[in-house]
Amino acid sequence: MSSPNLICMPGDGAANPFTIPGTTRTYSCTAGSAISVVGEDATLLRGQGWVAAGPGTPIKHTGPTTSRPTAPTVMMGEVYIDTTENIAVIYGGPKTAWMNVATGASA
Predict the structure, then answer these.
(1) 83 domain-assigned
(2) The predicted structure's pLDDT at residue 25
(3) What is the pLDDT of residues 22-73, one digit of tens each?
(4) Listed residue (65, 89, 64) closest to 77, CA to CA
């Protein structure tokens, strides 16, 4: 198995809890929160609507909070470096909007 990945739980209908097929590994967390999961499990969770955040997630934009895209070019997973708050945020879908990459909290 590969190294851990940070996965954020969006609040817009992703399967939660979710059990990895063929295993007893079940993941669950509160909408807007983040958990660390093993790489292969992260891929399956993303397929169920969860959002990856952390190393390897592409950064699309950088700028002030007021310039965050209101309609990101991808449905979920777009990263924005917020220079006003000095944090990275990730788009978690239309209901969740932006989440702090480090904490999973709404931002």
Answers:
(1) yes
(2) 92
(3) 999 999 887 666 788 887 888 888 888 787 765 555 566 788 999 888 777 6
(4) 89
User: How many folded domains does the chain comprise?
Assistant: 2
CB burial of 28-43 (b: ≥16 within 10 Å; e: otherwise) equals ebebbbbbebeeebbe
- DSSP string across the chain: ---EEEEE--SSS--SSEEPTTS--EE---TT-EEEEEHHHHHHHHHTT-EEESTTPPEEEEE-GGGS-SS-SSSS--EEEETTTTEEEEE--TTT-EEETTT--B-
* Residues of the domain holding 83: 59-100
User: Which of 63, 93, 92, 94 minimizes the C-alpha distance to 105?
Assistant: 92
Which of 88, 99, 80, 82 has its CA nearest to residue 7?
99
